[in-house]
Every structure is written in C-alpha cells, then in structure tokens.
Amino acid sequence: QVQVVESGGGLVQAGGSLRLSCAASGIFFSINDMGWYRQAPGEQRELVAGITSGGTTNYADSVKGRFIISRDNAKNTVYLQMNSLRPEDTAVYYCNAGAKLARFSNSRLYWGQGTQVTVSS
C-alpha cells in the first residue's frame, strides 16, 4: 500500500508565505505524477499545481507567479512553496501521488488526508 502524508499547513497573514510538504511511502515500484489540490468550504476540490516525475509543472491560473511546486524524487516528496498568500487561498490542501505498485501495473492515485491553510486579512 501507499501512504501519502502532508505537512506544513497553518495560519498566516495575507502577504505571507508557507511551505507544504507531502511524502509518499510504502511498497511500490514508482511514483509518477504528484500534485496539490485544495478545497475551500462549500467549494469543489480544485487543482493547484502538478508536477511530473520529470519535473514538468502546471499551475492553476489563480496561483501562477505566487506558488512553486517542486519535488525530490529520491525522497518521493513534493513541495508547494506558497508566497504572497491571499485570504482566498484559505482551504484544506490535499496532496496526491500516482503510484505503480509493480513494473507493469497501471498507475493508481493515492490521496493524503489534507492540511489546513488559513490566510487572515
């Protein structure tokens, strides 16, 4: 099985920064794409940023220029550096990881439990 655990959330003032981390662990052949999503109260979960195993990134328009996603493949860890935070960034942030349990198996998506980010005005 694969476990995905986020850390680094908290309370920050508008304009501040936070860094989220997410580590995948367990028994698997490889970790492929990893990403960050967020869900605000009453809203649908939305993509924040994603990164492939080769380092190709994509971002939601709302965070471009403010957030940076990166990863350490040796540690199966993905990071989200969040700068110039705004109150509308307040949400539970979820990490996911695509993992292959065996060399020729399909990739399956695993989710973390989420970490709360609150930005005060």
Q: What gross morphology would you assign?
A: elongated
Uncertain stretches: none
Q: What level of helicity do the residues show?
A: under 10%
Mean pLDDT: 97
List SSEs in N-to-C order. EEEEEEEEEEE
| N-end to C-end Cα span | 41 Å
Radius of gyration: 14 Å
How many distinct helices?
0
- Biggest sheet details: 7 strands, mixed
Question: What does the model show?
Answer:
The protein is an all-beta fold and 121 residues long. It is 0% helix and 59% strand. The protein contains no helices and eleven strands. The strands form two sheets. Strands 2, 4, 5, 6, 9, 10 and 11 form a seven-stranded mixed β-sheet that branches. Strand 7 (67-72) and strand 8 form a beta hairpin. The model has no long low-confidence stretch (mean pLDDT 97).
Map the helices and strands.
Blueprint: E1 2-7, E2 10-13, E3 18-26, E4 30-39, E5 46-51, E6 57-59, E7 67-72, E8 77-82, E9 91-100, E10 107-111, E11 115-120
Parallel strand pairs: 2-11
Antiparallel strand pairs: 1-3, 3-8, 4-5, 4-9, 5-6, 7-8, 9-10, 9-11
